[in-house]
Amino acid sequence: xxxxxxxxxxxxxxxxxxxxxxxxxxxxxxxxxxxxxxxxxxxxxxxxxxxxxxxxxxxxxxxxxxxxxxxxxxxxxxxxxxxxxxxxxxxxxxxxxxxxxxxxxxxxxxxxxxxxxxxxxxxxxxxxxxxxxxxxxxxxxxxxx
Length: 145
Fold this sequence. Notes:
By secondary structure, this protein is mainly alpha-helical. The chain has helices spanning 6-33, 39-75, 82-106, 112-144. It starts with 5 loop residues before the first helix and ends with a helix.
C-alpha cells in the first residue's frame, strides 16, 4: 500500500466529521421542520433552504469524493480506502436518485407524504456517513498511534 500522509488522514477525517454533523442536523432538524412550514411559505422556504444547504454540502461532498478517489487510486481496490470510497459512492447514489428527486417534487409545493419520504430516505445517508466516520476514526487512530 502506498504511504498515506497524516495530512490526508486528518483531512479525510475532518471531511467525514463535517458531513456527519451536517447530515445529523438535516435529519433531526431541517427535514422534520419542513412539516411546520406554512403551505403559503413553503415554496420560498424550500427554495432558500436548497440554495443555502447546497453551498455547505456540495463543496464538502466534492472534496470527500475527490480525496476518497485519490486514496483508492494510491492504495488500490484491495486497500483499506476502498470500503470508505464505496460508502461515498453509495451516498452519492442515494443523494441523486432518492433525495434530489424528492426535493424536486417539493419545488411545486408542500406535500407531507414527500416530506416523510425525504426524512425516511435520508436515514440511509445518515447511517452511511455515521458508519464511514466510525470506520475512518479507527483507520486514523491505528495510523497515528
